[in-house]
Design brief:
mainly alpha; two-stranded antiparallel sheet; 18 helices; 2 strands; 1% strand; FLVCR1-2_SLC49-like; membrane; heme transmembrane transporter activity
Length: 438
Amino acid sequence: SETIDTTSEIKSYKVRWLILIVASLSATLRSFCQSCFSQISNVLARLLKVQLWQIDWLVVNQSICFILLTLPIAWITEQVGFRKSFIIVTGLLILGVSVERGYYLLLLGQVLLGCNITFGYAVLPLVSSIWFPSNEVASAIAIQFCSRGIGEALGSFTTPLLVNIHQSNAVVSFRLTMLFVPFVILSVVSLLVSYAFVPDSPPLPPSLAQMKKQIGSAKIHTSILESLRLNFFKVKALFSSPSFVVITTATGLVNPVFRVYTILLSSMLRKEFAGEPGLNQVSGYLLSVAWIFYTIAALLTGPVIAKTKKYRAILAFSAFIQLVAQLSIVIGMRLKLRALIYPAVLLLGAGAGMTETSLTELSVEITYPLEPSLVSSVNLIAMGCFRLIYSVVSRALLDKYGATASTLPEPILVTIGFILIISIPMRFKRMEADTPES
């Protein structure tokens, strides 16, 4: 049976939990594939006969997908609706995890996963806003980010456990191929469930804010060119808001930092502590725990935001935590202090979990009633641009000057993001709309 609100025109349906489960499973699978290669970059480089920077691009290529495909995918999501978008996400996941043989086919699989991730970011806020009441929206977002954290944690330590530099190429190739068999099976199951059980929208909206949005944006059939023109003006309207520009810039500056360490940490440790055995495993375990911290922080942040509505204060606090962690890593690398580096990486994971949940929720809050998928997409472009810059610059600094130099750009730019977050006044539009008198 369904849970009915005090207003008969508002209702929450149990199918929302099935939709959230499928969305979370997809996030876990694609996140595993994001993190599973970087910790064994030297093993893969030998197996595939490529350079270390080419292994980085198994993840970095996704930034290109964010930059080039995000707005087109946001438009597609708006045109085809929630159900078809959800099916596309699970369908692309099958393709992404099925192509895993040889460097260029492996890269193609990761590019397809990049497309999947881009669609996933567009669909993520829709799962919450279309299906969940206002008091559950932040928690639904947090659960999806938690699922991502679980996938990243599993990917970080699984591959260093399965393969190492002392094994033959034949053993490494076989073990990695077998690793992805259950992923294909789970992806097919997700697609079938999406096709069979996921509707386009609930019969009745789950909140006053969603009901008012539906009333204010009745479906108008337009041509493709007219639809593109309307989307151009929506993006223009977003950037007319100083608070949104600040949040988008902060998203780009702060969000990608933890990802850079997911890509480069094993290479940094091998460079700084050259000759010591087992550094891939150390990096894998460390990042796995860091992603668990990310998951816990994201899970706790959603309900805290829902209860306190302290969007900006929580975001500023999480950015400050990341800044402290990054400065500690810089000092630890410079002095070769593992006792400082390792806890700092864990702290960075916790800060990243808080940051991502609060950034997503705050962006949707201040831009209401614009489509959450469009807002998320613009933020994703900013994140893709900075992630690309961070990853390429840090790899170049690592190869030429060492691990300490490769850790310097991030704390400088995150400091700028922190200052932006605390400096601009913001209006919480969705909170205002979710009151009967508004």
